[in-house]
Amino acid sequence: MRVLFTVWPATAHLYPIVPLAWALQSAGHDVRVAAHPALVPAVTAVGLTPVRIGDPATAPAPRAANRPLSPETEARLDRLTGRLALDPTGQYAWGAFRRFMIPCLRDFHPAGASPADPMPAVDDLVAHARAWRPDLMIWDPCWPSAAVAARVAGAAHARFLWGLDYFAWTTETLAARPDTTPEENPLADAVRPVAERHGVDVDDELLHGQWTIDPIPPPMRLPTRTVRTVPVRWIPFTGASPLPDWLRTPPERPRVALTLGVSVRKFFKDGTDRVGALLDAVDGLDADVVATLDDEQLQDLPPLPPNVRTVDYVPLGQLLPTTSAVIHHGGIGTFAAAAALGVPQLVDDEESEFIVVDDHGTRTTFRERHMDAPPTSAYVAARGAGLPLDRHTQSTAEMRHRIRRVLEDDSFRTGAAALHQDLLAMPGPHDIVPVLERLTARHAARRTEP
Questions:
Q1: CATH of 245-424, one of 3.30.160.40, 3.40.50.2000, 3.40.50.880, 3.40.50.720
Q2: Does the structure show a pLDDT above 70 at 105?
Q3: What CATH architecture does domain 2-234+426-443 belong to?
Q4: HSE of 230 in the Cβ direction (CA atoms, 13 Å)?
């Protein structure tokens, strides 16, 4: 079976698929990864075969939520938000889709595009799918044009989620409103020019796949009714690098990891206040704190507390096994890495200021919680595996008290073990390979070999 993965160009989107790609590869299937030129080295480094999509000299750099939406789009979304009249859970999900997912879509599906406009990356993907003729395409929700390529090539196709299913939830929420039309769905609006360019109809299957591979624990998922789901256990893969000397021996006292994630560092600039507040909270603890922060995140901060070591980067798979707790931003990848190792968690579930820079250098801001933090924080707390942190509602003393509680109260380690069992209850990547083989055989279109 030929399998073509398509991922949005960030390691936070690549790393979650790696265990499944390896599982398919080790089962004898031919696996390739369609990748933006910037991601090709990372794909190669994890032992997979990249297929470059787009010209390295002209391919646009991904900007994610740093990419501003046009005033017309913002006004249209404001009107849509008012009509939806969402409850708190819905407000969170819609906010995550609007602020984080739509800009990711627009990186490779420009607003206002017509079917006649050049689409180099998309056309490259369609051309490769036509030439290689994969049996199965597994695609990133932020790269929905992969479904167009799959349909053109007659391949079965499925999404692989790396977070909550904001996409299907949005489609279903809009469809349930009698005063909205399918044309108002931002996902359909992004895909439609590509679909028309290649003679493909836009329908729910095109937008959400013939099925969805979902590694998110069921209690965390957004409610959807129409999506066929294949659950899979999240196997944390966080990259590899030489083991630092200081990680070779166990720490002499409890170690706490503090990380705000590579994606936050790369795409979001929310100032130093958040970092400073967290460093103040760990000051004075009888614990060694390892903070994965770069020079920009440390800029303009006062001298670090004596119990804090900063490192620019270390894979969580190396750091977390030595820790007694982790403080993080609520990202699904960090959450899953900690849960897989039974490490108690403190989730910084706060509203932050994100800076957006347009093509002319004009800076604007919006305030939002990190898209994964609310469900991550709630799930960790519900399982007794940790506590939330929020500098806007908690004093430094209260935050320090919460960190100390998680370090000293054994109930949190018991809760973390229960969280680990939740992951183990889901099938592993090797377990679902036969399921994917059967679904592919069922869905792949009949094709006449050239």
A1: 3.40.50.2000
A2: yes
A3: 3-Layer(aba) Sandwich (3.40)
A4: 24
